[in-house]
Write a structure and sequence with these properties.
By secondary structure, the chain is α/β, with parallel strands linked by helices. It has two domains: 29-127, 3-Layer(aba) Sandwich (Rossmann fold), CATH 3.40.50; 138-273, 3-Layer(aba) Sandwich (Rossmann fold). It is 39% helix and 16% strand. The strands form three sheets. A five-stranded parallel beta sheet has the order 5-4-6-7-10. The protein has a three-stranded parallel beta sheet with strand order 2-1-3, sandwiched between helices. A two-stranded antiparallel sheet has the order 8-9. Helix 1 (5-27) runs parallel beside helix 10, helix 2 crosses helix 10 and helix 6 (138-149) packs across helix 10.
Length: 288
């Protein structure tokens, strides 16, 4: 069965539109998301455009502040602090990656944790680890929502996550192994130093792959009947396409779909859910 993240995210966005109308009425203004974009990374330009489009759809005021790629840390820090002090700004998002001369972790720490809708400040990561999350990073939150809406029970199941990034793998492992609603799974977190990866992936009831590398996992590495969530999105050359490339995930979809009971496509799986959950976090930020 195909997990249609595009349709599920659309349903969530419609629900949020109604919720945000109520919030706007109470606040006397629309929720306000401030996005900071530094440089002209082509992928970041696309992601920011999609985020602003989603804001408009649900009724959030999305504002973009652009900086040249040569901007200094002091300039970015000053801008973040102004947004922290602006009571009308509910959420602040620093679009990653940043130019090489900037320290993303240092700059993220300047964001008020109550406005950190990406959930990346030390305080928000700590709250997540403690089992009392404020903001959960949007991609893990989207994956959890996909699993919930597909009626998948995680309790007691064997979950394998391939990829240990701070924005996907690690927070997801914390949530799924915790004691919250639809969690209590046994979670294995694999990464680039994992020996004999197939020994782990072939035992997974739920396999989540976020490596940033095309076709890391194929059907031979997947347990029959497993649920497969592919977080990756990669460009590979394809001269049959007008663009000269096509998008694929971190899982070889054609071989994996013959083994999986449920699987996300790329595109149209996790990606739309990430945007929808960011909007949900902005909605939450108005209540803090």
């Amino acid at each position: 069965m195909l997990i249609d993240g595009k349709q599920i995210s659309k349903n969530i966005m419609e629900e949020l539109s109604s919720e945000i109308k109520t919030i706007t009425s109470k606040l006397g203004r629309a929720p306000y998301l401030s996005i900071i974009l530094i440089g002209n990374n082509p992928a970041s330009e696309v992601y920011v455009r999609e985020k602003l489009k989603a804001c408009k759809y649900v009724g959030i005021f999305g504002n973009l502040t652009r900086f040249d790629s040569s901007a200094s840390e002091e300039e970015i820090e000053s801008d973040i602090k102004k947004k922290n002090d602006n009571k009308d700004v509910d959420g602040i998002l620093l679009q990653l990656p940043l130019p090489d001369h900037l320290d993303s972790e240092k700059l993220i720490e300047f964001i008020d944790p109550n406005k950190d809708v990406d959930g990346l400040t030390t305080e928000n990561i700590g709250l997540l680890v403690s089992g009392n999350p404020r903001f959960v990073p949007a991609t893990p939150l989207g994956i959890i929502e996909l699993i919930n809406r597909m009626g998948v029970e995680l309790k007691g199941r064997n979950v394998v996550i391939v990829g240990r990034s701070k924005i996907v793998g690690r927070p997801l492992s914390i949530i799924m192994s915790g004691k919250g609603a639809n969690s209590n799974a046994t979670v294995t977190l694999c990464h680039s130093w994992t020996s004999n990866l197939i020994d782990f992936t072939s035992q997974a009831d739920v396999l989540i792959v976020s490596t940033g590398s095309a076709n890391t996992i194929n059907g031979s590495m997947i347990k029959k009947g497993a649920i497969v969530i592919d977080v990756g999105i990669n460009k590979i050359e394809d001269q049959t396409k007008k663009s000269g490339y096509r998008l694929v995930g971190d899982v070889d979809f054609d071989s994996a779909k013959t083994k999986a009971s449920m699987i996300t496509p790329v595109p149209g799986g996790v990606g739309p859910m990430t945007i929808a959950m960011l909007m949900k976090n902005v909605s939450l930020s108005t209540q803090l």
